Each structure stands twice: as C-alpha cells, then as structure tokens.
Amino acid sequence: MRNVIAVVDSGLGGKNILNACKSLLPNEEFVYYADVKNAPYGNKSKKELLKIAENLVQYIIDIFDPKIIVLGCNTLTAVTIKYLREKFYNRIFVGTEPAIKPALKKYNKNEVVLFATKNTCKYYKNIKKIYIKNLPKLIDENINNLSSINPILIQHFLKNKYKKIKAIILGCTHFIYLKDNLKTILGKDIEFFDNSDGVARQVKRLCENIKFHY
Predict the structure, then answer these.
(1) CB under 8 Å to 156, separation ≥6 — which residues?
(2) Counting runs of H as helices and runs of E as strands, what totals does the chain give?
(3) Are strands 68-71 and 93-94 parallel, antiparallel or unpaired?
(4) What is the reported pTM?
(5) Nearby residues of 108 by Cβ (< 8 Å), 6 or more positions away
(6) 148 SS3 class
(7) What topology is assigned to 100-193 in CATH?
(8) Which residues are catalytic?
(9) Which residues of the chain have pLDDT under 50?
(10) Cα–Cα 20 to 30 A to 210, which of 25, 68, 75, 143?
C-alpha cells in the first residue's frame, strides 16, 4: 500500500478538507481528485451516486493505492459511505458530515440552519434547512467572482423563517467559499460551523494508528 492519502470530491469544495489535512499532517503525501465529469452530486439519485462512488474509488485504488480515502463531500458521505465500506472492506474511509452537534450545543434549533445539497438535507431531520439547486457547480464556475451568486443567496436566506438565524452549518464543502458573501448579506455576527478540522483530526488519528501497527 502506497504512503498516500486520497481526498475526493466533485469539484473545488474538498480542497478545504485537503488544506485542513495538510495543516495537521505536513509530512504526509496527498492526492486530490476532483470528479468534475459527474458534478454536481447534489441532485443525483442514490443509484447514480452509488455507481459513481464505486467507480471513483476503484479508479483511485488502481492508480494511487491510498492508505486512506477521504470523501471530501457531505453528499457522497451521506449517500455512499456505508456501501463503500462494505464493498471495499479492506480500505479505510473517512467521511465528511455536517457539524450539527457542535452547532446545536451552542444554539437552539430555531437559531441554526443547515445549508447543504438536496441529497444531504434528506438525511437530517428536525433542523431548518436551505438547499439551492446546482449551487456547488455555480461556485466552481464563478470561483473568481463569487459576488455574482449573491442574488441567489439573498433570495433564499432573507426569507422570514430565517430571521432568527444566528448560525449556519455548512453542509457542503463548497459552501465554505461563501462565508464572506453570507456575512455581507446576514451580518458579521453570523457564526459558521463546518467539519474540515474534524475530518483532518480523524485522518491524523488513523495515520497514527497505522504507524503504530507497522
């Protein structure tokens, strides 16, 4: 098994996970794979995503033979990680899940909204949610001009039912790029919760465990 950690996503969002991992593990070797061919993941059926994920992981294994595979995508994690762990039972997977627990530990559920893709939103109940169709793809296409997305964000976030929102759970790694946009729209005091650091800490623990056993 090669000494490499693979981080995969449908576009640029997973690079936030990659950067967090690199920060904690500067001596590890990483490879990042952006599956732009099948982007976006958020609107695809479960059947489609399972097939995409299986083919993607098999390709990553064939080319890089990584010691750890990180799904740097909330949608891919929510829909496929259980299947992938069963299919590739001799591989180590780390998923990316919305940071709901730390957000609800600090705020009540009426003050928090989960901002995620359609597929991710399906997996979480009893919390306010915002889903914007094809937004990850729009972010990738407008990464150098993110202010162009503001009218779409305003349309969704300034509805009356979100007036009491104090925190946003970024349930898609792409959405981390929109923090400044949302601060401009909602105010500087809005707090964001994402799980990049949590994923990086888990990857670090697994790396240390691998070294211990070898």
Answers:
(1) 130, 132
(2) 9, 8
(3) parallel
(4) 0.91
(5) none
(6) helix
(7) Rossmann fold (3.40.50)
(8) 73, 172
(9) 214
(10) 75
